[in-house]
Amino acid sequence: MANSNRRRISFVDFSHPQVWHKLIEYAEVTIAFTKLITDFTNQWAKICFLASSQLHQLVAEFRRKTESEIRDKCHLGGMMYDLWESLLLESELESQSVKKMACLMEKEICAPLTSFVTNKNVELTINKQHRRDLNDILERSHEIVQE
Length: 147
Description:
mainly alpha
């Protein structure tokens, strides 16, 4: 049974140092770009949550004010009240859809991208350390062979 802690050899280990540095640069740029997208999406989700919350509060406040106005002036109502209530209902539905969109953005985009960035950072650190170890082994091997 193979040891799960044993390291697998990667193509990165055997590439020429100039090529290896280019691969590392590409990986770092990919990680930075993914982090930028993650941060943007996270901020956009927060903005959507805030907008949803404010819209919901606004609808609740207008409903309360409308209700008190209707009670004060009981003879008003009918079609105008129905139109106003339908507008508030549409606004409330819009608030709920914006909130759902923000939840989906966090769940389906931010969380996987954050996990990807974390995993790639760990993988990059491990690859750098393994490359240093490989270089140390090669240098010592050359020294031993020359002696």
